[in-house]
Each structure stands twice: as structure tokens, then as C-alpha cells.
């Protein structure tokens, strides 16, 4: 595929620091834009039953988001796109850094990725970070805590039943087909530097 941009994907479970690392790497690469999975959350389609999905192997191809794929493909091939959540216009540059939890696992996305990074982190640390993020969001907004706390309660209930095992299964898949595994305990600044060092080693960075 003759793309105009080099695509780096960042994967990891919720709370692993994907978005933070994407943005840190974008700053260090300079000629880069970030492209986030969560910006397309409203058009994501997941399997109806997570337990069945997990038992059948948690195939990432069952997570569909044609708008995400279409926009990433257009951007990678020199087109200008408009993000759906904030109407920000993105123009093609040298590097596109993609927050993609499934790495190369999803059909169409995998073929676009040039360098796949997986954040490896103990799941209890990722969970603690997510809880803290929710609490910090409540404090910053000054709004009533009822709704976000209810959402967190529902998330934790599902986490104990199936979500933790799903994260483990998905990250195991990603690690089996990525170019670099980084330790999510380390700072985003250090992880970004490690990625750049690896790109230089492989003559993928100019």
C-alpha cells in the first residue's frame, strides 16, 4: 500500500495510558497527528455478549467501526478528514499515531499499521488508574458525582465478571503481533523515547 503517512499504533487495556502516550509521542515526533479510538466511540459496534465473545477467543474482528477505518485510511493516503466528536480538521503529515486497543487485530486497520506498540501493565494498576481518572474528573467538573460513580460501579461489576479476562485475552493477542512491547509502569516520556529509539534502530525514523 502506497501511503503518504507512517502509522504507529498504541495498544493496551483501559487505564494503561494509551492516550497519554499517543499525545507524548506526537509532541516528540513533531510532524505528527494523533488519532484516537475513543473519538469514534458513538459508532463502535461490539459483540452483544462479552462472555460468549471471550469464550470464542475474543476475536478483534468482531469490533466494527467503519467510520474509524475510513477516516484513518483517507488520512494515511493524503486526504483531509474532520473528526466526528469535535469537528477538528486533520491534514496528512509524516506520522499518524493511532490509539487502537486491538493493534493489528482488526480487519483493515492491521494493514494500515506500520509499527505496532503494546503497553504491558498489570491489570490492577490499569484499573486503579481508571478509577482515579474518574474521581479526578468529578473533582475538576464540580458536578454531581452520582452519574459517573454509577457508571464506575457498573464497570467494576462487569470487570469482575468478564472485562478483566477480556483485557488479558486482547492484550495477549496484541503482544503476539506487535513490533514493540513497553512497560506501562514507566513514565509516558520514557516510553515515547523508547519508541523513537526503536524506530531509529529500524531506520523508520528520520
UniProtKB/TrEMBL annotation:
Q: Where is the Phosphoribulokinase/uridine kinase domain?
A: 7-136
- The protein here is known as P-loop NTPase fold protein
> What domain of life?
Bacteria
Known Pfam families for this protein?
Answer: PRK
Q: What species is this protein from?
A: Paenibacillus dokdonensis
Q: Do you know which InterPro entries this protein is assigned to?
A: P-loop_NTPase, PRK/URK
Amino acid at each position: 500500500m502506497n501511503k503518504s503517512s507512517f502509522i504507529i499504533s498504541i495498544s493496551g487495556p483501559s487505564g494503561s495510558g494509551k492516550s497519554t502516550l499517543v499525545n507524548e509521542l506526537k509532541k516528540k515526533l513533531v510532524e505528527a497527528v494523533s488519532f484516537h479510538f475513543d473519538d469514534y466511540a458513538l459508532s463502535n459496534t461490539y459483540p452483544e455478549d462479552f462472555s460468549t465473545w471471550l469464550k470464542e477467543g475474543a476475536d478483534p474482528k468482531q469490533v466494527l467501526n467503519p467510520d474509524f477505518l475510513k477516516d484513518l485510511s483517507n488520512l494515511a493516503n493524503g486526504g483531509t478528514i474532520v473528526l466526528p466528536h469535535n469537528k477538528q480538521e486533520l491534514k496528512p503529515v509524516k506520522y499518524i499515531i493511532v490509539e487502537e486497543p486491538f493493534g493489528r487485530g482488526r480487519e483493515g486497520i492491521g494493514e494500515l499499521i506500520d509499527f505496532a506498540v503494546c503497553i504491558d501493565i498489570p491489570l490492577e494498576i490499569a484499573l486503579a488508574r481508571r478509577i482515579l481518572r474518574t474521581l479526578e474528573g468529578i473533582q475538576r467538573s464540580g458536578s454531581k458525582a452520582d452519574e459517573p460513580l454509577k457508571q464506575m460501579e457498573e464497570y467494576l461489576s462487569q470487570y469482575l465478571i468478564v472485562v478483566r479476562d477480556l483485557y488479558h485475552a486482547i492484550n495477549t493477542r496484541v503482544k503476539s503481533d506487535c513490533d514493540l512491547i513497553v512497560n506501562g509502569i514507566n513514565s509516558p516520556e520514557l516510553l515515547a523515547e523508547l519508541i523513537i529509539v526503536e524506530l531509529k534502530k529500524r531506520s523508520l525514523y528520520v
